[in-house]
Amino acid sequence: MENHDRIIQGMAGDGDFRVIAAQTTVAVETAREILDLSPVAADALGRAMTGSLLLARLLDKDVRNQYVTLRFQGNGPLGTVIADATVKGGVRGFVANPVPEDPLLDVEKAIGTGMLTVVRGTPPAGKPYTSQILLGGKGISTDLTRYLMRSEQIASAVLLGVLNRRDGVAAAGGIVIQAFPHATEEAIAAIEQRVKDAPPLSTLIDKLDIEDVVATVLHGVHYKQIDAGYSVPVSYSCPCSRERALAPIALFGEADIREMIEEGGTEVVCQFCGRKYSFSAHDLLALTAKHDA
Known about the structure:
Layout (H helix, E strand, L loop, with lengths): L5 E7 L4 E7 L1 H11 L3 H20 L8 E8 L5 E7 L3 E6 L11 H5 L2 E8 L7 E7 L4 H13 L3 E10 L2 E12 L5 H13 L3 H7 L2 H8 L6 E2 L6 E2 L1 E2 L5 H9 L3 H9 L2 E5 L6 E5 H12 L1
Parallel strand pairs: 5-12
Antiparallel strand pairs: 1-2, 1-10, 1-11, 2-9, 3-4, 3-6, 4-5, 6-7, 8-9, 13-14
Helix pairs in contact: 1-2, 9-10
């Protein structure tokens, strides 16, 4: 599948609204393949991944390494769902239980109620900013809309969609619309009506380029793309490394590490991309030396 995933930006309502949209079809299909996701898991993770990309782009884009992590911890059969995205368009994800027993579940029931944790960071400077809201059980779009209203006190709308077919993910993407402080109640009401009347986002993305999808959703409210040449490529990417894989092992007690040494070493598998890192007894001996130091 050729990768046309990208993020675009525009304005609506004669400058009253900021609009960021993402096409994420290939990234979500890549996640489905790597993580062996059922359709409902692909739907849930696809929405979460797209949401994390949109939120990452809402941050100050002058900071090159910033990221947003969304952690959905619900009581549904999917268990924990994690999406992690950077401002540069990299995204990855994880589902604790990728194949629930009931294949006909919708996303809301598959995630359930619980807690959404949002982590926004700009490494290496400073500590990440973490906030939480209760999951309302009404969908990822609604939960992210509530989060933006609570965290930024700005009227926002988040639209997310994933279209599954037998052979995989056919379409995925999302739009976030934020009102500037000077937007009138009438202008906000007009945007809300367009969002309400819009066809399902996934079906639009299946047929149209993301630029035309946004123009269709926001038809009649003076939407304009800021720069036709502006486009941020999106891809499923994992920054895991041998050093990062070794770090959690270093937190084990000395007795546990020595047990691994006696077994000839250990292996760490990245939960996001499936990459395997093997550590020999010699590698682990170096850790015990640090413990003794």
